[in-house]
Amino acid sequence: MYQRIRDLREDKDLTQTQMAEYLQCSQRIYSNYERGDVDIPTAILIKLADFHMTSTDYLLNRTNQKKPYSKS
User: Fold this and answer.
1) 46-69 per-position pLDDT tens digit
2) From CA 62, how far away is CA 72, in angstroms rounded?
3) CA within 13 Å, CB half, 53
4) Residue 19, φ and ψ in degrees, nearest 5
5) What is the pLDDT of residues 3-21, one digit of tens each?
6) pLDDT value, residue 68
7) How many CB atoms lie within 10 A of CB 59?
8) Three-class secondary structure assignment of the chain
9) Which tops the pLDDT comparison, 38 or 66?
10) Per CATH, which fold does 2-59 belong to?
11) Cα angle: 45, vertex 49, 54; to 5 degrees
């Protein structure tokens, strides 16, 4: 999971600091998320999925489908 979050950030050429600002946390906390040192809170996981236009299942390695689910 953590590698996917890092890869998605790097694909957009964003720094950890920029992602931390979007998530309203410190760069250190965000770095901990990417390294897997702390569990990512559900609200943050949802924000990451929305930001990267993917599903939480993709971030959690439950699917390899990057495309988000349709909201119905």
Assistant:
1) 999 999 999 999 999 999 988 877
2) 21
3) 3
4) -65, -40
5) 999 999 999 999 999 999 9
6) 77
7) 21
8) CHHHHHHHHHHCCCCHHHHHHHHCCCHHHHHHHHHCCCCCCHHHHHHHHHHCCCCHHHHCCCCCCCCCCCCC
9) 38
10) 434 Repressor (Amino-terminal Domain) (1.10.260)
11) 145
Look at residue 22 in the predicted model and tell me its pLDDT: 97
Check: pTM over 0.90? Answer yes or no: no
Residue type, 60: L
52: amino acid identity, one letter: H
**Structural domain spans, the chain:** 2-59
Amino acid, single-letter form, for residue 31: S
Residue labelled with tokens 């236009």: 53
Which structure tokens are listed for 67?
């495309």
- Residue pair 64/58 in contact (Cβ under 8 Å)? The answer is yes
